Amino acid sequence: MTRPRLYVGTKNASSWAMRAWLALKASGYEFDEEPVDIRRPQRFRNLASIGEFSPPGAVPVLDTGRTVIYDSSAIMEFANDVSENRLLPRDIEARAHARSLMAWQHAGLSSLCHRISFESAFYPLKRPLTGAEHDECNRLFRAYEAPLVRHGGPYLFGEVSLADFMHAPTVVRLARHSADTSAWPRTRAWMQLLLDHPLVAEWLAEADRLPHIWYDDYLVDARDPAPLLRDTAGRSPECSP
């Protein structure tokens, strides 16, 4: 039997691969990591190759040697299974609550993450969050605060869980855009704890060393058409999907 292999995208672009990677690493499951460059134009050729053995033709994908598991949520649930359920709360209602938070993230958090791309978390300068984005952040922080109060922290459901790892890339986005957490002290402490988690820090250290992947629509403020950021090295902007 071949050693399991996790196919992950470019680390400053692939938030879904980050989620799967965190869960598998935390579970103790041993695997080899296969980087897939998802920057344009090579992404089309590279993802077509993934499509030869994984129907969605996307990353992340876990090939166990016997089974191909695609979609980050399925990989994360597999990680919980192989860890003998250590990565979800024991209490059945707390577990359902954790899965609700995970499902909301999987559905896009009301498009908050689409407006603040994962790639932008690694830009040298950040645009200010809009009023609508601040409102969405507060709605999200309220959802984080509730389980932190109920279960006493330090993570969302006490011990670190899939819910924390599912939201880790969002925490990276919002923390690096200086989202205002002053009204949410438990959420602020939890976000910092998650950013300091050794596995999260390991992924981010690698991502921070990569060339930036520019989104043109991020560089223009809707209230002012002048570009907010420029590539000072004179390179042509690169956009991820």
From TrEMBL:
GST C-terminal domain segment(s): 91-228
PROSITE patterns per record: GST_CTER, GST_NTER
Annotated source species: Novilysobacter erysipheiresistens
GST N-terminal domain residues: 4-87
Designated name of the protein: Glutathione S-transferase N-terminal domain-containing protein
Top-level taxonomic group: Bacteria
